[in-house]
Amino acid sequence: MEQYFSATQKMEQEVMFPSLLRGVFPQEGAAADAESHTDLYERYQLLKAIKPMVEKGLASVGDQSPSGVDTDTDPALDEGADSNLEERLSHHVNGLQQVLTDLTKNTKALTRRYSQILEQINLSEDQSSS
């Protein structure tokens, strides 16, 4: 989770001109094959839109209190459901971890590519001025 927030914060700090990402497509293997029709500008917009949703989701999980749980349910139903809770939780935590890992990889790849674009711009400016 910390890596995801760190990567998105770095992306937001480094990508000062997102329009430079228009028409630029991912170069890297895993990041490129799934959404190769999406340029990095669209991906940047998506990653920025996802961050508040992740933050809000985490905040709402923290806001839930045990008093909000319905205690009038049938105890026989709870027994069957409880036996599966650990498995269900594990499944969802693993899924969330995979999604955050993928988001982190995409964010880092986008930030690296943006830095490469800036380096290319700087090199071409240096060459034209000499």
UniProtKB/TrEMBL annotation:
Keyword 4Fe-4S attributed: no
Main location: cytoplasm
Keywords of this entry: Cytoplasm, Nucleus
InterPro entries, per the entry: Lipogen_MT_Stabilize_sf, Spot_14
Pfam families xrefs: Spot_14 (PF07084)
Region span, Disordered: 58-80
Biased composition (Acidic residues): 71-80
GO CC aspect terms: cytosol; nucleus
Compartments (UniProt record): Cytoplasm; Nucleus
GO biological process, one term: regulation of lipid biosynthetic process
Annotated family: Belongs to the SPOT14 family.
Name listed for the protein in its UniProt record: M1I1B protein
Organism expressing this protein natively: Serinus canaria
